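Standup notes
- HV: blocked on the assembly model, inputs below
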Amino acid sequence: MKKLILALSTFLLAAGPAYAAGTMRIISITPSTTEIACALGLEGNLAGVTTLCDYPPSVAKKEKVGTFSDPNIEKIVMLKPDIVLATGLEQAQAVDKMRRLGLKVISVDPKDFEGLFRSIGEIGRACGKDKEASVLVGDMRRSLDSLRKKTDRIGASLRPKVYFEIWNDPIMAAGKGSFISEMISLAGGINIADDTGRPFSQFSAELVVLRDPDVIILGYMAGGASAAQSVGGRLGWGGIKAVKAGRVYDDIDPDTLFRPGPRLIDGVRALNDRFYK
Amino acid sequence: MKDIRNILEDRKKRSVKTAVILVSLLLAAAFISLYSGAAKIGLFEPLNVMSRQILYMRLFRIMLAVLVGGGLSVAGVILQGLLRNPLCEPYVLGISSGASVGAVLSIVLGAGGMFAGLGVLPLWAFAGAAVTFFAVYRTAEVSGRVPMQNLLLTGVIAGALLSSIVIFIVSFSQQDALHSIIWWLLGNLQIFDGGLLVFVAVMVVAGTAAAYIFSNELNAFALGEEEAAHIGVDTERMKMVLFLTASMITGAAVSAAGMIGFVGLIVPHFMRMVVGPDHKILIPSSFLAGGIFLLVCDTAARALMPPAEIPVGVITAVFGAPFFIRMLRKKSRL
């Protein structure tokens, strides 16, 4: 009898969440949570995404519930979701409205990798994909650890100084407290803008010259002529080491650098690759 | 007769005095600005390659600040003078919003790179400004004449329309990068392109010279449009020339530095309080004062919070507003 109860409860425990996940309707209103949900095997449960959600490519076929900055609450309510996935600051108002309408909203706003792992866990728990979430987090941790093992051996004086440009007019850099800064250090580089003390700010152009980075990464895709050329052509920037050595890169997919989801690992790898080319 | 000669003599003396004061202030501000910034460069320190590059960058930025600040102030003087409205500033005709539509389009359409030695974004912005000016001017025209009130209203409405077009494109574009246009709109005087500086210099200097040449006509307009016509001013033609001048200066300034507010509004008022309403003195002194004001604000923007920079538009408002209000109160007490 005892065995039977045990077997039954094990069955229920295993099948319960799986059953829930099978019919659960999820709406994701940020590209990053869409990526997390799909990585947890919830793509089939997605009842709606935003127009900005483009990864994995197959989510393009999903119902659209507006833009990232302006999700259509009426449409979201009409689609009768069990859970809505959203992000913090920019969507606080929309999240508030949806909660008042009685929707269950999971709002995640990770600031670093540890926070991202917690967010993935939270989404996994809410959507009955606990196990998948811990597998995904474990994989991501292992990738970072193996990279760290490689970069830890490199002494501080041998690490490249990195200037990561988020935008060019005005020039914006990522300081401490941003994913970018953490990713640069995980990839084995030294961020020259760490001392701005805030995640994103307008950065002093003359300090880029003074701090003379070995590598410059552009976090945007500039159309037309190569952005690398235009950086070298800037007044006063011709003597910067990265420019002289031709180490200005604009070929990393910005989504792997800016979207707090599983693909950030690809971003860190890409950075590491450019730093030690 | 002797009295008039005395008055003219006195005016000449005063304008020479004003010019000397303003030019020395400008030179002093430029010198201080050259040696302030996030990178510390001592005055007597021997220059190496790097510090020479940095001083060179600062010099270009100083020149742009003076040109943009001076140009926006002259444009403000022209518009306030013609429209006889104290709220007028260079952006009132929608020119700047037209420029931002141009800038946004250049990003959306992925038009990067260079054209004829100039970055493409400033060219698009300037084209947007020019198209807006001619569209606004033609729309305001009624049977061959352009009534001032029509022009002002058309400009304000066009500005509102174009700003919402910018917001529409930004919120519906798939490009994350486009959100950065918000930063561009806040204004920034870092210049990486010598060609762009030459372009702004040509537009601003030519525009200021044109405004100076027509300062008698501007004085006549101060009496009212009809009165100006009575003393023999070809008002329709002058309006076209002067509005075009103000708009080309504004378009060039905005395309190089974004929308820096406040300069074009307060400097003309301030200088009118100091040197009086005669445009022959008001235009050159507003150019110099606007240059000094924006240069000081930009130096603060780049030196106050290193390694970060403060958007210069924030500084112009924070410094400018209290200063201006104090000046206004002082004047009304007299």
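- HV (later): unblocked. The CA atoms of residues 70 and 275 of chain A lie 37 Å apart. Confidence is low (pLDDT under 50) at residues 14-19 of chain A.
- Next: hand off to the docking folks.
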